[in-house]
Amino acid sequence: MLKIAVLVSGGGTNLQAVIDAIADGTIANAKIEAVISNNKNAYALKRAENHGIKNICISPKDFESREAFNREFLLKLNSYQVDLVVLAGFLVVIPPEMIAAYKNRIINIHPSLIPSFCGTGFYGLKVHEGALARGVKLTGATVHFVDEGTDTGPILLQKAVAVKEGDTPEILQRRVMEEAEWKILPEAIHLIANGRIAVEDGKAVVR
Asked: 173 and 128 in contact (C-beta within 8 Å)?
């Protein structure tokens, strides 16, 4: 049974998609061990509570330095003894120590087709604003492993979504979530939980 920690800063819609996929069997051989947020007001914590999942807030604001926060965060994460860390809208930079400790065991969902509209500064609505400003006809979402860079780790899954006339960033964001994010994040977790993902020569391979 793959034990998962989900890290989230906001409403937790991707978290809900994972919870639902585990409940209906779309994700087999996995369970969410804990939900961790940096935001005490994140609705994701309430979602976890509603489903009887352990949840905790650890905020950088409560520590005298980022180094002290990073140490405590890693200690708390380690205490849950999870096999996989899922970043589902987590707006905190993952420290190198955590990346090293969980090499190829941290995945992230990003709301574009990497390498487009990703990297430093591209998060949330900014991704969709960038896509609309550029006039792309297709956007989508990507699940990737997390490495030391920003959105640079091996890509597991991608799904394209059409950009439509009259889209606003908010409308496009919702379509990308519904048609891509909520589908490929559970799929990626299922593949990992069932031993079907390997990283070879810096690339993720589905077996």
From this structure: yes
SS3 assignment for 77-130: HHHCCCCEEEECCCCCCCCHHHHHHCCCCEEEEECCCCCCCCCCCCCCHHHHHH
> CB-hemisphere CA count at 13 Å for 57?
16
Collapse the DSSP code of 175 into the 3-class scheme (helix H, G, I; strand E, B; otherwise coil) and give the result. Answer: helix
Give pTM, 2 decimals: 0.95
Whether the Cβ atoms of residue 106 and residue 145 lie closer than 8 Å to each other: yes
Per-residue pLDDT, 106: 98
Catalytic-residue membership of 110: yes
Query: How remote is the C-alpha of 121 from its chain's centroid?
Result: 16
pLDDT band (50, 70, 90) for residue 188: very high
Cβ–Cβ under 8 Å, residues 189 and 84: yes
Give the containing element (helix H, strand E) for 189. Answer: helix 182-193
| Residue 47 identity (one-letter amino acid) | R
Active-site residue, from 51, 110, 144, 190: 110
Is residue 6 within 8 Å of residue 19, measured between CB atoms?
no
Which residues lie closer than 8 Å to 106 by C-beta, 6 or more apart?
84, 85, 86, 87, 94, 98, 99, 145, 146
What are the tens digits of pLDDT across the range 33-56?
Answer: 999 999 999 999 999 999 999 999
The tens digit of pLDDT for each residue in 119-136 reads: 988 999 999 999 999 999
